[in-house]
UniProtKB/TrEMBL annotation:
GO molecular function terms noted in the UniProt entry: GTP binding; hydrolase activity
Catalytic activity: GTP + H2O = GDP + phosphate + H(+)
One of the record's GO cellular component terms: cytoplasm
Chain intervals for the UniProt region annotation (Disordered): 256-284
Ranges of Basic and acidic residues composition bias in the record: 262-279
Sorted UniProt keywords: Chaperone, GTP-binding, Hydrolase, Nucleotide-binding, Zinc
Protein name: CobW/HypB/UreG, nucleotide-binding domain-containing protein
PANTHER family noted in UniProt: COBW-RELATED, ZINC-REGULATED GTPASE METALLOPROTEIN ACTIVATOR 1A-RELATED
Residue ranges annotated for the CobW C-terminal domain, each copy included: 330-394
Short name of one Pfam family: cobW
UniProt cross-references to SUPFAM superfamilies, sorted A to Z: Hypothetical protein YjiA, C-terminal domain, P-loop containing nucleoside triphosphate hydrolases
Amino acid sequence: MDDDEDIPVLIEHTEEQPINLQQDENSRRVPLTIICGFLGAGKSTLLKRILTEQHGFRIAVIMNEFGDTALSKSLDLIHRSAAKTINVAAEGQESEEFLELANGCLCCSIKDTGITAIEKLMQRKGAFDHILLETTGLADPGPIASLFWHNEEFAAGLGRDIALDGVICVVDAVFGPQQMEEDHASDTVGESLRQIAGADILLLNKTDLATPESVNTTAGLLRGVNPVAPIYRTVRAEIEVGRLLGVHAYAAAPAFPPSHAHSHEHEHGEDTHDHEHEPPAPTHYELRGISSLLVTVPVLSRAQLDALDEWVRTVLWESHLPGAAPSSDAEKPLSVLRCKGLFVLDSGAQYVLQGVRSMYEISEAAADPALGVPDAGKLVLIGTGLDARVRQSLEGVWTG
Ligand SMILES: Nc1nc2c(ncn2[C@@H]2O[C@H](COP(=O)(O)OP(=O)(O)OP(=O)(O)O)[C@@H](O)[C@H]2O)c(=O)[nH]1
């Protein structure tokens, strides 16, 4: 450790906040983004980029790893970056470390899991505008995401200060498909597929090491599992920070693909935003593991919206279709890991559905006058056992 270890002195924040990272006006909650990803896919490379580049955002990064990995990782990041100071705050907790970086970011490597690490970080509230939480490779982001969203216990505590912004999954363009392939070996759905399913943004990294054809194939696989998350193709996780943070994935109406088959890409420097909107034909990954169901929902009456709410509740809470007994087919039990929806009422009102595992909410969305009222709604379910019976049962909600 360096000689110049000091108790951290964190500078009072006086500058204006970046527009897209403004905290919720009502609650002043700090947005939190979860980074998960395949082993060796480039999570640390992304973090290093964020911690060392001049992007104007003050981001606190928590490396939530076990053992010494986080410590060695953060020191490695610091040594390679032009950090002004290295501060270690012991506070009687030997596992706590805070590093203040030259670009205003704060790196925390805390060998505690989840909540404790964040509680410690929040003691330094005001020193950052956004929190990034890196999970261990192949950790399922679902339980962590739900911890920060709609957890009553959490809402009474830290949840007053933190709002879940989104989940980013970094996928290895070279080994990603192989990892997905190996993942189905277990009798339950593998972690890599859970990560893809639970992501709000997919970073398809290391595209320089794969042929354009295989990158396209991998993007297609990702799209098959998660049809709504944007896919950014990157080399060394090079992407504008503003495109990853401040996405309000759990608050805003989800950006659904248009109903017609469509595929285009935008170049943004090194990264490419991929909109391969139509899910490809089911692959063996989907048949063995997770698949998605994307349904167009017609304009609904209030009563139909209530019926839809009940349908979602039954499926998410009881894992069976309304009116049907719980499935005894152990191979493909009905289970929803993530759902999103936008519903339009005949009154013109719009409602947004957001769900993680068994937790969900349907709330009225502020209509954007510039966009007008959409002529139909959409619902996407990502999980297992999402077969034709599920679509039929769902459509029965409005066809009667
Ligand atoms: N060629 C190439 N190498 C990359 C790219 N992104 C990351 N790497 C390298 O791949 C290796 C693994 O990257 P990391 O960022 O450590 O991956 P990680 O996801 O943090 O790894 P774990 O935490 O061990 O799961 C490192 O040697 C990186 O320099 C890329 O886009 N192209």
